[in-house]
Amino acid sequence: MHIKPHYQADYDVIVLGFGAAGATAARFAADHSYKNE
Fold first, then answer.
1. If 0-12 CB within 10 Å is exposed, 13-18 middle and 19+ buried, where does residue 2 land?
2. CA distance 30 to 5
3. From residue 37, how far is each of 1, 19, 32 by CA, in Å?
4. pLDDT (0 to 100) of residue 36
5. What is the 3-state secondary structure (H, E, C) of 10-26?
6. Predicted local distance difference test score (pLDDT) of residue 19
7. CA 36: distance to chain centroid?
8. Any bridge partners for residue 36, and if so which?
9. How does pLDDT run along the chain (37 residues), one tens digit per residue?
10. CA–CA dist 9, 16 (Å, integer)
11. Contact criterion met (CB below 8 Å) for 37 and 11
12. What is the pLDDT of residue 9?
């Protein structure tokens, strides 16, 4: 059985985790209007 995803999304930044580096990356991306998830 092969299942294809039913979505497509484009992101400028993907931040995994929320340690010091993750929080900084997410804040930087938000401040500079990057689309992130």
1. exposed
2. 27
3. 29, 16, 14
4. 53
5. CCCECCCCCCHHHHHHH
6. 93
7. 4
8. 13
9. 788 777 777 888 888 888 999 999 888 888 988 765 5
10. 16
11. yes
12. 79
Task: Say if CB 36 and CB 11 are below 8 A apart.
Answer: yes
Measured from the Cβ of residue 15, the count of other Cβ atoms closer than 10 Å reads: 18
- DSSP 8-state assignment for residue 36: B
pLDDT score at 13 = 83
Task: Please check whether residue 22 is in contact with residue 29, taking contact to mean a CB–CB distance below 8 angstroms.
Answer: no
pTM, full prediction: 0.58
Residue 26 backbone class (left: φ over 0; alpha: ψ -120 to 50; beta: rest)? alpha
- Assign 4 to helix, strand or coil: coil
